[in-house]
Amino acid sequence: MIRSYLVKLKNSNPFLLYLWSYQQKQKGIKNLQQFTDEEAIVKLYQNFSGKKPNLEEPKTFSEKLQWLKLHYHNNLTTICADKYEVRHFLIEKGYGDLLNEIIAVYDTISELKVADLPNQFIIKATHGSGWNLLCTNKNKINWFIWKKIMNLWLTNTIFWPGREWPYKNMKPRLIVEKFLTDESGQLMDYKFFCFNGKAQFIQANKGRDTANHAQNFYDLNWNIQPFGKDLLPRPDIKINPPVQLNKMIQIAEDLSKDFPFVRIDFYEVETKIIFGEMTFYPKSGLPDFKPLEYDQILGDLLVLPNPISE
Asked: By three-state DSSP, how is residue 158 classified?
């Protein structure tokens, strides 16, 4: 409860977010200097779960994702994890119509000119996870501190703490996209967990940042499942399936067929599918399923490939 409160406080106060972002960057630099990739992965996993992962014979979903960090270095994962470069991948696959509109792309914070932007938009760090600014009124943003936060993003990488390999040599950029809403009043995202080219589960969230937050998993027929990530399922809260569920499944499986595991996120705006992102290590692959036994159950679905070196 205390940790959840502190996270909400940090996310609602840009000055605290800046201090936290700075601390995380320094911590990541120190981590890179002190530990090998395997040492850093074991340390992160053990600090979170209280036990070391079995990297020699991984069995659980979380252990297998740690193994993939170390041994599956497919250059296509770097392209697809990059929020800008993945657009070229989708276009090549024939899904360019799923892409949200780009307003601007910046390599440096000095290029960001607020006056040139519309009133509403979203800014994302293309090389990060959760490094986003959702802007509903640009005149209410403290641009002095937010530019400092985004500059920290541009000089940071999520490779350092969790050694998520695709981010190791990714170019830091900021991408500004069109602001999207749907009938929920938020922007519902549908996260497809794909194992060896087969969609198995869909994660859907409702009521984020509220006391009634639900994060449910569903099978492909939209039957609620008895597990969750971070949160236990809330069968008392109804989350409707997207209108384009079957088409989303088809696209997710097509996009995922080159990878042992990937989570593919979509939005649905007025029945139109909008691509979100591709994620290869949700929560850095840490064992956060509830109940925890599903870490093993989902691990059984993931068939590891032969190692691929850099």
From this structure: coil
The enclosing domain of 272 has a CATH number of 3.30.470
Whole-angstrom Cα distance, residue 30 to residue 253? 39
How is the chain split among helix, strand and coil, in percent rounded to 5? Answer: 40, 20, 40
Dist. CA 173–CA 111, nearest whole Å: 11
Q: Is the dihedral of CA 308, 125, 209, 207 positive or negative?
A: negative
Which residue type sits at 255?
Answer: L
What six digits make up the tokens of 113?
Answer: 């000119």
Phi, psi of 290 (to 5 degrees): -130, 120
Overall number of domains in the chain: 2
How many angstroms separate the first and last alpha carbons of the chain? 41
Are 4 and 100 in a shared domain? yes
Residue 90 belongs to a domain? yes
**229: amino acid identity, one letter:** K
Low pLDDT (below 50) residues in the chain: none
Using one digit for the tens of pLDDT, what is the confidence trace for 245-293?
Answer: 999 999 999 999 999 999 999 999 999 999 999 999 999 999 999 999 9
**pLDDT at residue 192, rounded to an integer:** 98
DSSP-based three-state secondary structure for 66: helix
Same domain, 102 and 223: no
For residue 163, give the nearest of 30, 40, 50 by alpha carbon: 40
Q: Quick check: 72 and 257 in contact, CB under 8 A?
A: no
Considering the domain architecture, whether residues 165 and 110 belong to the same structural domain is answered as yes
User: Which tokens in the block code for residue 83?
Assistant: 């929020």
**What is the per-residue pLDDT for 183?**
80
Pairing between β-strand 174-178 and β-strand 121-125 as defined by DSSP bridges: antiparallel
Q: Output the CA–CA distances (angstroms, integers) from residue 85 to 64, 92, 283, in the order listed.
A: 26, 11, 22
Distance CA 155, CA 107 (A): 11
pLDDT number for residue 5: 52
Q: Is the peptide bond before 291 cis (omega within 30 degrees of 0)?
A: yes
The count of other CB atoms within 10 Å of the CB of residue 136 is 12
In which domain, by residue range, is 196 found?
Answer: 181-279
